[in-house]
Amino acid sequence: MRHYFLGAAANYSRKQRLLHTFTIGRKKDCSALKDFLLKKYSGNEVFLTKNGRSALALALKANFDKGDGIIVNGFTCYAVYEAIRAAGMVPIFTDIDKSSLNFNNETLSMILATACPSDNSPQATQVKSSNSVECFTAKAIPKGIIIQNSFGNAVDIEAIERLTKKYGLTIIEDLAHSAGVKYADGREVGTVGAATMLSFGKDKAIDTISGGAVVFRHPCKNKVEAPSKIPKLSDHLRARFYPLFGAISRGLSYVYLGGVWMRMLIKMRWVEKSADNKLDLERKISKFEAKLALKQLKNLKKAGEGKIREFYLVNNREELLAKLKKAGYYFDGFWYEKPVSPERYYKRVHFPEEACPTAVEISKKIINFPTYYKKQDLKKAYEILKDYEESFK
Ligand SMILES: *Cc1c(COP(=O)(O)O)cnc(C)c1O
C-alpha cells in the first residue's frame, strides 16, 4: 500500500466519498447541529463558523479585551496563534511535558508566577528574581487560557482549575484534537470552560474538511456577531471534492504521480493546505458540512478513545522518514515539525524558544501516526520505527 498519509478524508471508502460529495445540507441541518452542541456542552449560544480558528477568535473576542494575555500550549499550530492575534490578544506560550505534549501544573505555575505582578508568594518572588525571568517576557497580563488536549491527551484539568481560580483566568477549551475525550475526573472535554471551540477541519477529531463551531457556556463579556455570510463557492467546492482528489492521488501514487497531482491541485488552488485556510469571522459553515459534522458527533462514542495521532520521539528523524517513504508510508507534512507548525509560518510567531525548551526538543524528535488505520496496516511502519525510537520515561 502507498500514500497512507494524505489524511483521513483522502482515505475514505468509496461509500464515504460518495456521501461526502453528494450530501445535500439544509438550514434545518444547521439548526440540528446547533441544538446538539448546545445540549452536549450545556451552552447558551452557539455559532457555526468557516473553520476552527474563526470559532476560536470569536470565543476570545467574546471573553477578553484587546491586549489581554492568553496562555497557550507551547506546542500548537499556527491557526491558534492566528486566532489569538486576530482577536487582538497576546499569546503567552507555555512549555509542555514529554508524555502528554500539554502544559502542566509546573510549567503553568512558573509562567503565572512570573507574568502576574500581583503574585508575591515566595515561589513567585524566587522565579522573578532568578535569571530566567528574561525568558518569560510576554509583556501581557494573563487573563485567559486555551486548553488544547494535544492529540487527544487530556490535561490534568483539576490542577489547571486550581491555578485558574487562583489567578482569575477564564478557560477556553479547544476541541480540535479531542472532541469526545474525557478528563481524568470523568467530565467530558468541552464542559469545563467559558467557551468551547470545535474544528471540523482536515484530520481533526471531527473531520468534514472545513467548518467549525463555538459554544458559549457562560454569559459573555463582550458582544460578538454571529457569522452571517454564506460560504464562498470556491471554499465550498474545495471541501466537496477533497476526498475525491485525495483518492485520485492515492491511485496515481502507484505510478509515482500522486505527488505531482497534489502539487498541481495546490498550485491551482483546488486544494488548500490546512494552514492556509483563511480566518473569517463573518462566513458561516457550509450546510452539508454541518450535516456531516452532526453525524460524526453522534458517532463519537462508537469511535472509542479520541486520540487523533499516536506520537513517538525518535532520533535521526530525516533518515527514518526516508526509510518510511521507501516502504510506501508518506509522512510528508506530518504534524509539528516546529513548536508552532507549519514551519513556513514559524518566523511570524516569534516563538520564545528559551522559555519552552521541551517544546523545542520535541519538535525536533516527534513523529506521529494517524489513528484511523489498523495496527496491522502500519505493521511495517512500526518495525521501521523501532530502530529509531527514543525511550524517555
Ligand atoms: C487545526 C487546529 C485549530 C484550528 O482549526 P481550523 O479548522 O483548521 O481553523 C485550532 N486548534 C488546534 C489545536 C488545531 O490543531
Any overview of this molecule?
The longest helix is centred in the middle third of the chain and has 20 residues. This protein is 38% helix and 13% strand. It has 15 helices and eleven strands. By secondary structure, the protein is an alpha/beta fold. Strands 1-8-7-6-5-2-4 form a seven-stranded mixed beta sheet, with helices on both faces. Strands 3-10 form a two-stranded parallel ribbon. A two-stranded antiparallel ribbon has the order 9-11. Helix 1 packs antiparallel against helix 8 and helix 5 packs across helix 6. The protein has two domains: 194 residues, 3-Layer(aba) Sandwich (Aspartate Aminotransferase, domain 2); 83 residues, no CATH class. The structure holds pyridoxal-5'-phosphate. Pyridoxal-5'-phosphate binds next to helix 3, strand 3 and helix 4. Pyridoxal-5'-phosphate (PLP) binds next to helix 3, strand 3 and helix 4.
List keywords for this structure.
393 residues, alpha/beta, Aspartate Aminotransferase, domain 2, 2 domains, two-stranded parallel sheet, 11 strands, 13% strand, binds pyridoxal-5'-phosphate
Largest sheet: 7 strands, mixed
**Low-confidence spans: pLDDT under 50, at least 5 residues?**
131-136
| End-to-end distance | 33 Å
| Beta strands, count | 11
Strand content: 5-15%
